[in-house]
Amino acid sequence: MHVLPYLVATYVLLVGCYGLATSRNLIHAVGCLAVCQSATYVLLLAVGYRDGGTAPVFSDVRPGSRPVVDPVVQALTLTDIVVGATVTALLLALTVQISKRHGTVDPDELRELRG
Amino acid sequence: MRASLSRHTANTVASVNFDQRAFDTMGEMTILFAAVLGCVVLLRQARDEHRDRPEPSEVAVPVRRYALVVLPVALVTGLYVIAHGQLSPGGGFQGGVVAATALHLLYLGADYAALERVRPVEAYEMGDAVSASAYLVLGLAGVLAGTAFLANTLLPYGTFNTLSSGGTVPLLNAAIGMEVACAVVVLLARFLDQAVEIAEESGE
């Protein structure tokens, strides 16, 4: 088992969290959330990796001739990416509305309610 | 993995997504559909806004030439990736995004009016709904044929490593590909509308 991909996943997650915590711009925050989510892609692919494995696609590899990585986590990663894209789209749509209604995208200036 | 090989699907990831766990993919598709619906609702034209005709703008000649050369290539690549989802890496999700992005090269290469001519948003919204229901109908066809919902037992599995192999996998792939392409087009159209056309009423 290799440690490096797990360290990379943790690092990417922490970088994204730092960006989220210090963000002064909602669009920037949405980007940071996407960075956080990309840590989960690395984590999932690392979980399914096998030493010397190749892609689990048998159009040019004879079945059984060499190890392949786990296809289930790859399918999960695909789902993860799709869900991430939809979340980003929805959040950006919300940001557009916020900037139109409140005239700002700084989360700190959104404290007071406006009727 | 043995199950995917027994069903003649060379790309095991596609087999996991569209055969063994096809029900989960249906949920995923529903999430995408709901997100598009949410964006359309959030980014609709409000009462105090109006539409401006976008100004035709000048595009640098190399950009225009590059976009027009790459557009057909990208479109065909997207369709190829969808069609070969059961054989090689790729599939409906990836190919759909590529095909939808190809259309928007027109926005870069020409201008917004040209994009609007080839992109009636209503048609793509319809396409989104039709392909989402096509996925459901394919699943229900399994029920009618006497097996389970979305079970891959309906069609012959075909010859391994050919375009028609994998039973219902290529059909579900095509449905997903169309759904994703339409969804991306609708989403980008809504955001571009906000950026280019819709403006607030002045003096309010």
Automatic annotation (TrEMBL), chain A:
Family in the record: Belongs to the CPA3 antiporters (TC 2.A.63) subunit C family.
Gene3D superfamilies: 1.10.287.3510
Membrane topology of this protein: Multi-pass membrane protein
Species: Streptomyces kebangsaanensis
Keyword annotations: Cell membrane, Membrane, Transmembrane, Transmembrane helix
Protein name listed in UniProt: Sodium:proton antiporter
Xref: InterPro entries: CPA3_antiporter_subunitC, NUOK/Mnh_C1-like
Localization: Cell membrane
